[in-house]
Amino acid sequence: MITNTELEYKGDLYPTKIVSFEHDVDSVYFHTDNSVILKVTVLRDSLIRFRFTTKGYFSNDFSYAVDKSHSHGYNFLEVSEHEVFYQIKTSKVKCKIQKSDMRLSIYDLEDTIILEDELGFHWEESYEYGGNIVKMSKSSKDGECFYGLGDKATQMNLKGKRIENFATDQYAFQKDQEPLYKVVPFYIGLHNKKSYGIFFDNTFRTFFDFCHERRNVTSYWAEGGEMNYYFIYGPQMQDVVTTYTDLTGKPELPPLWALGYHQCKWSYYPESNLKEIAAKFRALKIPCDALYLDIDYMDGFRCFTWNKNYFPDPKRMVAELAEDGFKTVVIIDPGIKIDKEYSVYKEALANDYFCKRADGPYMKGKVWPGECNFPDFTNPTVREWWAGLFKELISDIGVKGVWNDMNEPAVMEVPNKTFPMDVRHHYDGNPCSHRKAHNIYGTQMARATYHGVKRFAYPKRPFVITRSAYAGAQRYTSSWTGDNVATWEHLWIANIQVQRMSISGMGFTGSDIGGFAEQPSGELYARWIQLGVFHPFCRTHSSGDHGDQEPWAFDDEVIDITRKFVNLRYQLLPYLYTMFWQYIEEGVPMLKPLVYFDQEDTQTHYRNDEFVFGNQIVVCPILEPNALGRRMYLPRGEWYNYWTNELCKGGKELWVDTKFDQIPIFIKAGSIIPKYPVQQYVGELEFDELILDVYYKDGKELSVVYEDAQDGYDYKKGRYSFMSFQATGKENELIIQAHQEGKYVTNYSKYKMNLIGLPFKVETLEIDNVAVVFDSDTLEKEGYILVEKGFISFHIMGNLD
């Protein structure tokens, strides 16, 4: 007998009416008559989690993204039932869930709508793979803008865009190309001067549509897993980003040298070539702290080995480079060469550490060493083994950092560039296929690498960099934006990508300066350096296939520009280090797009180029050839042109003249910017004064400076110095009040106060209310006063010119 067994195509399915609810401490459960359950959990007054299941029960609750070490808590929670809806109220927002169809809406306490469902949660059964395609659609308000989602190569404002999240090796990617290397399913919405955030914590392939398919509808969906998202209320974008970063975690401080300039190429070998590079940096006096070794340093591209023909004595070489201030960073990829004589392969094989196909055999794929197997980094036992492999590199040889590449994971010569979707993963005790594990594979590799480097670098701090990442990877690693191209368009892309990564929780990010693929002109390289020194991670890197890309590969003018701007970065290291401290302490992004800096100014909502470096420096790169100036938008307030010290009013677009050796840089009036003297590498010099560039303002401005031993963990025991300087400018006087926290004593004993923009001639100086004689000639000619550190009040007075 033959029967029709064709599966019924049901299309989109929806929750039906709610038949019951229960309130359990911080969570409220809603049940429908078609077995949908919605669990609403209030983590904070402004942070609410929404979790749906269509099975009548929830699977094990597990997330690689959420930082479990951090506790949450709310101040107020009230659950009430009304005629047609249930309401959950906190001290910040009200959430209404409709009884008829489970659609929800969120309001502030003044009943202004923040976010509301359009179709709301719905799903489609996936008979091919099992489970559901889970979907969510929200109504978008008129004029609403969208930001975030990691390193997307598109406009800062995502309105009208459709985004795909599937970690992919995209060599020489183009503007607007999807998907890329990283997956950060978090976006920020802004309308009516109020911001909110959505974090869709689902590691399957996900999509976001920001009014692209349907006007005034925003939707997101995943090819499997749960509809599990977090709503974050601002109303300021700063609050949204800080809460998200706190939810997914913050890194520890890097060693200060990791914030210096780094040089990389595929590849520097043999040893003599690497030594030539090092010597040239020092001869040209271009500061540099780290040199990188790409895959050619290995024996046949086998991880954790050395090619002894190129590098006969790695320990000696690394030590000699260290004597001249260079830290060595090496690449490690996930593919382990199938070679029965290779110890790493034999260990993994003996312990069953490799990923397997669904029907049993090990996953096999081609990467640089040839045929490889791949460790299952979602298995904690495998991560522990992997961490232990770094002992020789870090403890014995003295390598200072590790660079994880190809960890999307990338596989060559296959159509989808990665593992087959049937590959199985441990997933920390939640077994799954590669459909679920793909997007977090690179993060779990970086996590294992981080723990290994940290273990063997101790008592120093680890440094790890990764190409692929999922939300939360910032707890373990820095990152870069992947295989870009030496074009002006890619300079524009790099600028936006790093800003976007910064407000997506992953602040320690940079691009390959000059472009990885192809060869930049001298002008493009110079303009890229001028931008790159204002990115938290600062590294030149190139494929080497198209020519050399060291600063001296170009003419003397480019060498001079490179030196000038790298010198500026090294001068600004205390400012940059302070930015990093605020990032790890408060979740404040180090780079701030103008919309983050001032969301109430609608002129910032579509700006791509300008950004705020830290809290007090506006940077606007030159993104076109042959430019001797550009139009830019200066945010509201008063700003000093860094090059001319001219005071400018913000809140408007203006033309800024520049030279080839300049880009527009503006300092917020009232700021006190800390600087070190130029060093060829971090720790080269001992100096007796900290430079403070004091920019006068008629009013008040707070500036801060964080310092510690620049490496190690004493800062966690209170051995740090956190200086706050409150500057108050009046018509004919300037008062700076200083306050110190922490037990760290800096080596310098003086402040060199560069006084900029004073509207009066200084006549008297009081330190802690005691008159002090100062060198008036030096002040008049050089513009600075030298004072002993440790003061509480610095007070200058004078006569108006």
UniProtKB/TrEMBL annotation:
Pfam families: DUF5110, Gal_mutarotas_2, Glyco_hydro_31_2nd, Glyco_hydro_31_3rd. Transmembrane segments: none annotated. Gene3D superfamilies: Glycosidases (3.20.20.80), glycosyl hydrolase (family 31) (2.60.40.1760), Golgi alpha-mannosidase II (2.60.40.1180). Keywords: Glycosidase, Hydrolase. Residues 689-757 form the DUF5110 domain. SUPFAM superfamilies: (Trans)glycosidases, Galactose mutarotase-like, Glycosyl hydrolase domain. InterPro entries: DUF5110, Gal_mutarotase_sf_dom, GH, Glyco_hydro_31_AS, Glyco_hydro_31_C, Glyco_hydro_31_N_dom, Glyco_hydro_31_TIM, Glyco_hydro_b. Residues 587-673 form the Glycosyl hydrolase family 31 C-terminal domain. This is Alpha-glucosidase. It comes from Flavobacterium tiangeerense. The lineage of its organism: Bacteria, Pseudomonadati, Bacteroidota, Flavobacteriia, Flavobacteriales.
